[in-house]
Structures are given as structure tokens and as C-alpha cells.
Write a structure and sequence with these properties.
Largest sheet: 6 strands, mixed
CATH class: Alpha Beta
Radius of gyration: 17 Å
Number of helices: 7
CATH topology: Rossmann fold
Mean pLDDT: 96
Strand content: 25-35%
CATH architecture: 3-Layer(aba) Sandwich
Bound molecules: adenosine-5'-triphosphate, magnesium ion
Low-confidence stretches: none
Order of helices and strands: EEEHEEHEHHHEHEHEE
Shape: globular
Length: 213
């Protein structure tokens, strides 16, 4: 499903990823642990088509996305990928419901029924007309989780999804993510620097000195 072959990525003179090789099966939930600055977000950005490597190939469903044009990469990102971030990245000036609908709108759909279904999945029907600032951190992350899933992407990329939450909310959010990705059979890459968060995954990997092992 996801194959990385010898991925190299530098910023300026610093090589962050020095030859990443990784194969992830469809429906697999993996975690990548590593210290701050080890290249975890860089790796997710490459798999998510938000950036490009200097070397190597990223193969998704048998297609080499590193050879995609910018337009093809944008389409790939919109259709196949759902992102969950540490700081939620909700749009502040639109409601919860409108935030959740955004990936559908970007894909040319205004299917409000699906929007409602996904709000319900994360238990936030009552908050659908609220604005993000009116929600707690945990609630905002639930909005972000339904936004990541609503367009039914094959891949979920989660970058420290509980890094800004208290430990009780953290547990609830991790259990929600695990439950939803399992029931919808998503392929997931979760990055974190916490061992106990990494353990939610079926396979745990580490990134250090630009290499994954
Ligand atoms: N856009 C960028 N321009 C320049 N340097 C960058 C850029 N993005 C990342 N870097 C550098 O690349 C290295 C890896 O960054 P990255 O964000 O991938 O680390 P990370 O493992 O996600 O860290 P954290 O756990 O703190 O989020 C860091 O040294 C960072 O400063
Ligand atoms: Mg990061």
C-alpha cells in the first residue's frame, strides 16, 4: 500500500532523512517514534504529498507519487490522505460542521448527510454550529479526526495528535482514533515521541539519525 524506497530529504545543508526504506500494508497501523527534530513531520509531509524528496520513490497503491505533477499531487492529497495534527489546524472563522465538510467540498461534494454522520461518529452533534474557539482541545481534535476521515481516504497521517492534550483526554482521543481507523480499515502512520502512544499501533518503528528501524 505504502512503499518508501531510499527516501532522502534535506533542508539547506542538513540532511534530515538519509535513506528511508519502509513498507506498510493496507489496513496496517504503524507508529514512528523519534526525538524532536528527528524528521517525523518531514516524513509525514512526504507521504502526504505536501513536500517532495530529493531522492527515492514513494509508491502508493503501486503508483510512484514522486513523479506526479503538482496538480496530480494535490489530487492525491485531497482524495487519498487524511491528516490529524498536534494543534488541530481547524479553520477559525467557520463552524465545526463547515470544518468537517471541508475535505468533501474540496473534492466537489456538498453531501451534508455524510457531514452529519461524521459529526455523530465523534459525538459532537450538539456542537456542530459552534466555532473552534468555543471547544475544548479534546473536542477540537475530535472535529479534526472526523475531518480527516470524512472523504474516506485510504491513508491517515497523525502527527503527535495528542501532543497538546491532558493525559485523560489523550487516552480518549487515542482510543477514538484506534477504533475509527480499525473499523474503516485505514492505513495509518502515527508519529510521536511517547512510547505509550506508539503502543496503540500494531507495529512500532523508530527514526534516528535520518534512518528508520
Ligand atoms: N521547512 C523547513 N525548513 C527548514 N528546516 C526544516 C523545515 N522543516 C523541518 N526542518 C528541519 O528538519 C529537521 C526535522 O524536522 P521535523 O519537523 O521533521 O522534526 P520532528 O521529528 O517532527 O520534530 P518534533 O518532534 O519537534 O515535531 C529539524 O532540524 C528542522 O529544523
Ligand atoms: Mg514534528
Amino acid at each position: 500500500m505504502i512503499e518508501l524506497e531510499n527516501i532522502e530529504k534535506s533542508y539547506g545543508n542538513t540532511k534530515v532523512l538519509k535513506g528511508i526504506n519502509l513498507e506498510i500494508n493496507k489496513g496496517e497501523f504503524i507508529s514512528v517514534m523519534g526525538s524532536s527534530g528527528s524528521g517525523k513531520s518531514t516524513l509525514l509531509n512526504l507521504v502526504g504529498g505536501m513536500d517532495r524528496p530529493e531522492r527515492g520513490r514513494i509508491i502508493i497503491d503501486g503508483e510512484n507519487i514522486t513523479s506526479y505533477t503538482d496538480e496530480e499531487l494535490t489530487l492525491y492529497r485531497r482524495k487519498k490522505v487524511g491528516f490529524i495534527f498536534q494543534f488541530f489546524n481547524l479553520l477559525p472563522n467557520i463552524t465545526v460542521f463547515e470544518n468537517i465538510m471541508m475535505p468533501l467540498l474540496l473534492n466537489g461534494s456538498e453531501d451534508k448527510k455524510t457531514g452529519l454522520e461524521y459529526i455523530k461518529r465523534v459525538g459532537l452533534e450538539e456542537k456542530q454550529n459552534a466555532y473552534p474557539y468555543q471547544l475544548s482541545g479534546g473536542e477540537q481534535q475530535r472535529v479534526a479526526i472526523s475531518r480527516a476521515l470524512i472523504h474516506n481516504p485510504e491513508i491517515i497521517l497523525a502527527d503527535e495528535p495528542t501532543g497538546s492534550l491532558d493525559s485523560e483526554t489523550e487516552k480518549k482521543i487515542m482510543e477514538l482514533i484506534k477504533q475509527l481507523v480499525e473499523e474503516t480499515e485505514k492505513t495509518v502512520i502515527l508519529v510521536t515521541h511517547e512510547h505509550y502512544i506508539a503502543e496503540y499501533a500494531g507495529r512500532m518503528l523508530r527514526i534516528k539519525d535520518g534512518i528508520i528501524f
